[in-house]
Amino acid sequence: MSRLPTPRAREVVSALKKAGFIEHHQKGSHLYLWQSTRRLMTSVPMHSGDLHRGLFKAILKQAGLSEDQFRELL
């Protein structure tokens, strides 16, 4: 299996929306996304450039998604 690419914040938000998340609110530069069926909330920092690998993996863990599931959503 290939290594997961480091995506931009907009790509992560787009994939999370495809997974059923909706924009809940934004505080500063952080966008909070909510999924009501599984009652999960995750935040994505909306900065320019790519997200660091560790931060990206933490967002996936908060969202309850595996790396393979994320690849399918891209």
Report what the structure shows.
The chain has 74 residues and is an alpha+beta fold. The chain has a single domain, classed as Hypothetical protein (Metal Transport, Frataxin, Chain A). Helix content is 38%, strand content 24%. It has three helices and three strands. The protein has a three-stranded antiparallel sheet with strand order 1-2-3. Strand 2 and strand 3 form a beta hairpin. The two termini are 16 Å apart. The model has no long low-confidence stretch (mean pLDDT 90).
Structural class: alpha+beta
Q: Quickly name the level 1 CATH class.
A: Alpha Beta
What is the overall shape?
globular
Record field, number of beta strands: 3
- Count of helical segments? 3
Helix content class: 25-40%
Could you say what the CATH architecture is? Answer: 2-Layer Sandwich
Low-confidence stretches: none
Strand content: 15-25%
In CATH, the topology is named Metal Transport, Frataxin, Chain A
Widest sheet: strand ordering? 1-2-3
Order of helices and strands: HEEEHH
Biggest sheet record: 3 strands, antiparallel
CATH superfamily: Hypothetical protein
> What is the count of structural domains?
1
Mean pLDDT: 90
CA distance, first residue to last residue? 16 Å
- Kindly provide the radius of gyration, computed on alpha-carbon positions and rounded to a whole number of angstroms: 11 Å
